[in-house]
Amino acid sequence: MNQYIKADPWSIIEEGFSAENQRSSESLFSLGNGKMGQRANFEEQYTGKTLQGSYIAGIYYPDKTRVGWWKNGYPEYFAKVLNSPNYIGIDVVIDSHMLNLFICNVRAFRRELNMKEGYLLRTFEAELPDGKIVRVEAKRLLSIVDTECAAISYSIEAVNFSGTISLLPYIDGAVVNQDSNYDEAFWNVLRMDVHSNEATLLAQTKKLDFQVAFSMRTKVSLDGKLCEDIRPELMKKEAWVGNRMKVQVEQGQTLTIEKYIGVCSSLNYSAETLCAESLKQAKKAEEKGIEKMLTEQASAWAAKWKQSDIQIEGDVAAQQAIRFNIFQLNQTYTGEDARLNVGPKGFTGEKYGGTTYWDTEAYCIPFFLMTAPKDVTRQLLIYRYKHLERAIENAGKLGFTDGAALYPMVTINGEECHNEWEITFEEIHRNGAIAFAIHNYIRHTLDYNYLDQYGLEVLIGIARFWAQRITFSTEKKKYVMLGVTGPNEYENNVNNNWYTSRLACWCMSYANECIGIVKTNTPAAWSRIKAKVNFDEEHEPTKWRTIVENMYYPYNEELGIFLQQDGYMDKEQTLVADLPHSQRPINQHWSWDRILRSCFIKQADTLQGIYLFENEFDTDTIARHFDFYEPRTVHESSLSPCVHSILASRLGRKDKAYEMYLRTSRLDLDDYNNEVGEGCHITSMAGTWMSIVEGFGGKRVYEGRLYLNPIIPEQWQSYTFRITFRGHDIVVTTTQTHTTITQYGNGELQLSIYGKEVIINSGEELKVDNISNR
Amino acid sequence: MNQYIKADPWSIIEEGFSAENQRSSESLFSLGNGKMGQRANFEEQYTGKTLQGSYIAGIYYPDKTRVGWWKNGYPEYFAKVLNSPNYIGIDVVIDSHMLNLFICNVRAFRRELNMKEGYLLRTFEAELPDGKIVRVEAKRLLSIVDTECAAISYSIEAVNFSGTISLLPYIDGAVVNQDSNYDEAFWNVLRMDVHSNEATLLAQTKKLDFQVAFSMRTKVSLDGKLCEDIRPELMKKEAWVGNRMKVQVEQGQTLTIEKYIGVCSSLNYSAETLCAESLKQAKKAEEKGIEKMLTEQASAWAAKWKQSDIQIEGDVAAQQAIRFNIFQLNQTYTGEDARLNVGPKGFTGEKYGGTTYWDTEAYCIPFFLMTAPKDVTRQLLIYRYKHLERAIENAGKLGFTDGAALYPMVTINGEECHNEWEITFEEIHRNGAIAFAIHNYIRHTLDYNYLDQYGLEVLIGIARFWAQRITFSTEKKKYVMLGVTGPNEYENNVNNNWYTSRLACWCMSYANECIGIVKTNTPAAWSRIKAKVNFDEEHEPTKWRTIVENMYYPYNEELGIFLQQDGYMDKEQTLVADLPHSQRPINQHWSWDRILRSCFIKQADTLQGIYLFENEFDTDTIARHFDFYEPRTVHESSLSPCVHSILASRLGRKDKAYEMYLRTSRLDLDDYNNEVGEGCHITSMAGTWMSIVEGFGGKRVYEGRLYLNPIIPEQWQSYTFRITFRGHDIVVTTTQTHTTITQYGNGELQLSIYGKEVIINSGEELKVDNISNR
Q: What percent of chain B has pLDDT over 90?
């Protein structure tokens, strides 16, 4: 843990400069707008420990994988979203000294990520080695209105001297990925243009030849008066282009440079026009000016907040945390482009390559589904539909046939591209999460049209995979699933992982159910799909049903619980409470061998399964499982605590739910796992949101009905969330005594609150007393 | 399969040149002398597909490992014995054309590895692009008498022309390992000297700074007459040094160059003297001359053959094969240097890095134990003793304490350095093989002194490891061993692998037994060891016994067999016989995922265990296991068929035993697994030898008694082997009707033949009739 962020309801704030925290802060204060993202690197030179990172969504590189000895079925490459040319850079030289916070004496350092309005502000006073003192204010935004534009305002006050200040705004194409497997550079710079107050750099990725143009326009003023007489020196170095401007500054004067950036990629433009387009964007930003951009940014964020904000009264740390999570999610994905998705680190770091995991379906989709227009989620589903052919190829590589689809664990274009054999190889449960997301989407939106157009084909491909992957044990006289890795990645290649088996069977049942729906409601669509996927109506549904009815699940009679996998009870049963603090997190202190042998659970996948299918279990059963698995879970996956928080809420265990909520919501802000410097856990942030809405709020959807069962942690005065459901917007506020529900939408909404059916008309507010124990 | 080697009892012969077979032949015709080895690369230039390979024993490089994402306990590096500077090269230019068999028209090509006398001979006629024809004879040896010397005689006859022939003998330091993980060069050349008919190159490995000096002396003659008037051009290029000699040759004349090589490494000399020493060796060879070197080589090999040869009458393919295996083993390891060991590919290729695996203990030691002076095996055991501290450190890295030792799966200096996570990581059974080898050594030699001096410490460290690695299952109320990989590498991370569990328990029992022996026989030694290893005499032996007595072994009542691991019977039970030929070997056709899920076995480790502890099982039990596991075994490990051959012999199933014998003995010669181009399977060659001696010959040692139970395949007229046992040399000849046994040694020898106790005096021959069915 590392707690240095100041509590504030709307901002992330750091006070006082610490080189040790710099990498962490670079992650935490990241900006993004769905199309690009930028770590909170400094504009001026910084020679301390840093992870320089700018990312353009969808621009990736198929890096060579690293593996000792190759085996059939291993991915050909590890795709990674690239660290792109650095467009924020402004070197500052005061007389002969380069401004560099690693070297200077830094005072009054303050950094603020203003989440309400969507900008980053940094102020500090720096004393240079020669005793000169400057006061700096740097503000920047990545516009969510003009998504190809960024702007920086950078002011330097000469506190105790008069002298020459040189400003060098630049674009630097000589960037590398720190996680490059073979220390290669991934970009070639194709073209650089430079004029007064203007530069453009065109870079192309190796192998796949994506092109991105970066343009900057700059404007320098002294004490607010434009310096029109500066003749910038036009500079070009290898893969670097910029201006150098020298200004004589008198003591007390403030020199300001505004830098307007345009970024355009070949995903959206033809290559020939890229430089012109990016310059156009930079000029557009310049004409608007940073003040207007900030105003527009604030309104645009206000709209997002209206839809997705959660207010917590009486607990500023919890309030800050949930807003941080919502802010980062909305910075990462906007649903405007079905080619994009949500990487586990979003735009805040290199790890996981910016590629798509099951996190999207299992965590992010519930968030976007209830806080954004339904098309946002639909785009995420279509992303997978577009990869169906590749998923069938992927299954084919592993030996599956006849249209069986295995979606990749890690992908950017539909091909499997993971880089971690021991865990990922058998983590086939992701296939289930993708099917479940379709179900989730439909139950929230009633958009059955999606099934006809896209979803059913995906469901059939997935069901076919499971039907082949599950085999019959003549010994057990049951169907079994051998050799899998569940979401609990601290087990590898186990037999009969309950979560995977249960989810697989659900997939086959749901595919059968959806075939029935499409057949009945839209027979023409069914005929088309049936022919397209060459469906054997006589045998396939029966086979799926037979497997579902005869599936083996490991179960312990004595404990009355499903076992995580065969043989789990053979392990030495120790509890997390007995682990010395010095050995945690175990993945940083124990050998992989020891972790695999231990009973400790990274994230409890049995509980994850119970979360998905909670309506099938009574409260006692849920409690038995929770009480068995939670004390064995080390929560070393960021995806873990939220599920435990939700189930603890379900069981009315407020303290545990709150503890887990803090852990998930402040995972990055308080750096629970000593790794935030690598980037934030963007996808698990959606789990934080779920901890409130589905956890404390007790929101569920079963059989077409919305359920709410709010409880409230004792530490809070109230909390309020807003969700969309089948065309209705529902605002729920829970205090220590009562809950009020308001709905906005077309006509009345029937829902269940604390087990009681109620009907709420549009605009109406319903107030009910809390039921303290569920 | 690829069968192109001509049958011959004493030679490996290839007739007719095929560029497709070149890499395979380079492996098969390799030379070695225990200190260095050389693939059968051509002396002259060759631009076809080739794997250039010279290896100096013990000179290795800690290559960076390749792994997607690092985990605690992974090795820091992958050690590999390096491809060393090329010292055999002699470029030949005829007028303006470079002699290059990939380009020339090649006729009458013949290559012979003369195993009886230990040299390589190659003859061919080549027509150059301009129509000139040369007839070449190239002969070379790596001396087993002067182990730092090699010699080449290379003759060129001008068949249909008169012209200029240029000879360029050289030493080339610009070599790479094709298996370098990051395409790095591993050598720096420190120094090059060149004089007339002489050159020296001193190279140093990166990181570890091993130095090796290579010197050459050359001698050129025309039609047998020394060309004393040649003034060689002295040449130095980057990392390359040589002479160029132009000779005018008339039609019909034969130009011959002799190249004498000295190779000295910093393993054996101080760095400053290396160049002088290697030149001394080259000069020594030159003075001796290649003819005398060949004569000495033949006598030295005759001595080796006397001890280790197996004669097979009536089956030349089988005869050739067994000699090939024995020859390669004796080329690879001589027992002169306890720092060396036997890599799976010996000196014939790069794969497996030339490092030490459990192959040494499980396969090579039985061979050397019975065909070489006992000190040869003792050296191999001391190699592990010297690594004991490292094995304790290695176990420590994985979380084991209190002197528990886990020997590495792959090592060159005692540290774990494997490069293949999926398989090797949990293959802890190697620890058992190392203990068993000590037992094997002692039962064959009665050298109990070894226990006092070295062995017992190793046994205690290993027993301690097992006692910690095995845990108690409160569910099974038995001890279990979770998360291991057995010798059958087509399963990964399984629970209760029978082989590993059985062997582990044996280790603990044997350690207890040996403690008793040392305590009784040499109490002073026991006191010393006890103090040194801090042995808890009160608890440790008891704990070991308790585990042994309460160990859980997976067993199937219905079939009456031990199961390879928990859950094996849950797999779809198909047989190898049902696999289409087109899908074999499955490791070249199936995904790793499919292999792991299938019931197919790379090598049957349950049978391996039964082989080790055969005396504990009656014939019916052995038969039940064999009949269950053999049909499921694909033998895609070179270590597999020999064990099946031995057990088939044990069961009197001659046809199966013979089939498996051919498979193991001609694995490389007939290239069963399409991979001999990478190198020969040196360690498994010892298994071939075991298939005859322990298989057909039925040789066993139990309770201090030697047992023989010979059977003979119908295809053979007779076979003869010679083994050493407790100071006796025993020669056994079996024909279709009877077996004769002769022993040479100190006094009489009591043994059991076909279950009958007999006593044979030294020099006496015993003749018994065969018992057709055991």
A: 93
Catalytic residue among A112, A457, A489, A636: A489
Bridge partners of A211?
A204
Tokens of residue B727, six digits: 């100071």
Mean pLDDT, 10 residues at a time, over chain B (774 residues)? 96 97 98 98 98 96 85 88 96 97 97 98 97 98 98 98 98 94 92 98 97 98 95 96 98 98 97 97 98 98 97 96 98 95 95 90 97 96 97 96 97 90 88 98 97 98 98 96 96 96 98 98 98 98 98 97 97 96 93 94 97 97 98 95 97 96 94 92 96 98 94 97 96 97 94 96 95 60
- CB contact burial A355-370 (16+ within 10 A = b; e otherwise): bbbbbbbbbbbbbbbb
pLDDT reading at A651 higher than 60:
yes
| Catalytic site includes residue B489 | yes
Nearest to A182 among B182, B421, B594 (CB): B182
Q: Give B514 to chain A, closest Cα distance, Å.
A: 30
**pLDDT tens digits along B592-650:** 999 999 999 999 999 999 999 999 999 999 999 999 999 999 999 999 999 999 999 99
% of chain A residues with pLDDT over 70: 100
Q: B628: which chain A residues are within 8 Å (Cβ-Cβ)?
A: none
Query: What integer pLDDT is reported at residue B183 of this predicted model?
Result: 86
User: Are B480 and A570 within 8 A, CB to CB?
Assistant: yes
Name the token pair of B172. 């080339």
Distances (CA, A) of B686 to B17, B301, B324, B330, B606: 30, 18, 11, 10, 20
CB atoms within 10 A of CB B652: 17
Taking an 8 Å cut-off on Cβ atoms, the answer to whether B566 and A567 are in contact is yes
Kind and range of the H or E run holding A734: strand A728-735
Question: Distance between CA atoms of B168 and B154, rounded to whole angstroms?
Answer: 12
What pLDDT is recorded for position B189?
A: 97
Pairs of CB atoms within 8 A across A/B = 144
In the three-class reduction of DSSP (H, G, I as helix; E, B as strand; rest coil), residue A294 is classed as helix
> Helices (H) and strands (E) in chain B — how many of each?
22, 32
pLDDT computed for residue B772 by the predictor? 61
Residue of A nearest to B495 (CA): A567
User: Residues A32-54: pLDDT tens digits?
Assistant: 999 999 999 999 999 999 999 99
> What pLDDT score was predicted for residue A773?
47
Strands (E) located in A173-206 = 187-195, 198-205
Q: Are the CB atoms for A159 and A134 separated by under 8 Å?
A: yes
Rg of the Cα trace of chain B? 27
Cβ burial B730-767 (10 Å sphere, 16+ → b, else e): bebbbbeeebebbbebeeebebebbeeeeebeeeeebe
One-letter amino acid at A646 equals: I
Torsion angle of the four alpha carbons A32, A33, A36, A39, in this order, in degrees rounded to the nearest 10: -10
H helical segments located in A178-230: none
Q: CB–CB of B72 and A566 under 8 A?
A: no
Do residue A594 and residue B471 have CB atoms under 8 angstroms apart?
Answer: no
- Taking only the tens place, the pLDDT of each residue in B171-198 is 999 999 998 888 889 999 999 999 999 9
**Which chain A residues contact residue B426 at CB under 8 A?**
593, 596
Kindly report the pTM of this predicted structure. 0.93
**C-alpha angle with apex A607: A604 to A612, nearest 5 degrees?**
130
A589 vs B contacts (CB less than 8 Å): 72
Across the interface, do A570 and B69 touch by the CB < 8 Å criterion? Answer: no
pLDDT value of position A772: 61
Residues in chain A closer than 8 A to B425 (CB atoms): 422, 592-593
- B571 with A482: Cβ contact below 8 A: yes
Q: How many CB atoms lie within 10 A of CB A773?
A: 6
